[in-house]
Amino acid sequence: MITQRLRHPAPEPEQNDLHVIALKEGARVTEAAVLVPLVRRGALVNVLLTQRTAHLSDHAGQISFPGGRVETADSSREETALRETEEEIGLPRARIALLGRLPNYEIPSGFRITPVVGWAEPPFELAPDPFEVASVFEAPLAYFLDPANYQRRQYHFRGRHRHYMAVPFEGRYIWGATAGMLYSLCRMLDGAPQ
Description:
The protein is α+β, with helices and mostly antiparallel strands. It is about 20% helix and about 40% strand. The model is unreliable at about 15-20 (pLDDT under 50).
């Protein structure tokens, strides 16, 4: 079912949707890609997430998907997502079957992120890069497919009100682009209205 749903074109986020975080007007764009890894654990499907280390200059301490900037040698956003996942958490690309893409996300820090959904087939061992990754954890996909688990939040920053999506999970605070990508996955898999 997941593969079939992801084969259809991704619904583009509406600019007025609160889960969309737009680039600042005139901002320089940095292209990036992340992998949204789905992992079967017995009868369950989990989503694999990382927590970034506190000292990083971009998005320090935040919960995210493995990924990063597009490099000139990358032939596609999928290649970027696979390369970055291998570098950040040691998950070999040979263990990942690509399933599709979610809508791009543009965020105020200047990144345009392409989320690539992949199936990571166990068994595998992870080797997180200690400079970038504080921890790696899994959470049930079913939790993120329930629209009731999402919260719409706002904050005041540099003279503007910004709206964003959050999805707390077992004491962890998943917010911003990562929560928005999870919400897009929820929408694509019919967990929420489109």
